[in-house]
């Protein structure tokens, strides 16, 4: 078996098995804790504007979705944001983009410092996004699927006027099923291709990835967005994988049946979203490529970052809508 990128997350059969999220607290208006207090007996932190800090990386698709949702809902003033360097060293995500190499609010050099302040025995991989309490300096949650759903549902009192409903209650059963399929076969599917250490594990992930992309293409052939005429959480989750597809997943992760630009419906759909305020203006292709090609030595030992692909196509007319 080839050497895995993340040994603790690789099964004996060579499959990549993503680690569970360690911190699963939630910020909610139903918390019984007073302002400035910690979580109540049910793990609910009090909803307070300006108290929590979202740590993200421009390169990470899981973190990227939180940045998009935060912006679309108008939570920029309610939740501050800290950005880590796309290049990790042996201590993980660094705040080296900040002038003194420390997050200006949390005062730490590494996100791992916050993880250890929350759980001194934590031995897993430090991940983004992470929602951090600036009062205690502890991680509230790194549960990326729940973070964005909570921003839509639990933070509603702090939304901007006219904010979109990204998780409509009437559509949730269908959306939840669709998002589970997208996560399994696409969002995490590209990683299951890239981090596979056996041919069988790679083959299975590859087939599921492109079967799902074909099904999504068929779904989008007669509707603008995944759930109809309005953008929802499902579109955001798919977008953050599609926008990275040709730049990193097609070559680096061996997802090479077809490029996104060779799938007409999905390419037009992705451009439509990219050109929507709050989407394309949060994309940084340089940081995306730097992260993937420089921090996966088991896959790209030379650390060479490709110059392509041409990004100009993202702003061409999409013909949808």
Helix content class:
25-40%
CATH architecture of the largest domain: 3-Layer(aba) Sandwich
Q: Looking at this structure, what is the CATH superfamily of the largest domain?
A: Glutaredoxin
Name the CATH class of the largest domain.
Alpha Beta
Strand line-up in the sheet with most strands: 4-3-5-6
Major sheet attributes: 4 strands, mixed
| Radius of gyration from the alpha-carbon trace, in angstroms | 19 Å
Q: What is the number of helical segments per DSSP (H or I, 4+ residues)?
A: 9
Distance between the termini: 48 Å
Q: How many domain regions?
A: 2
User: Strand pairing plus helix content: what structural class?
Assistant: alpha/beta
What value does the average pLDDT take? Answer: 95
CATH topology of the largest domain: Glutaredoxin
Low-confidence stretches: none
Based on CA inertia axes, which overall geometry fits? globular
Keywords: Transferase
Domain GST C-terminal: 168-292
Region (Disordered): 1-44
Binding site for glutathione: 93, 125-128
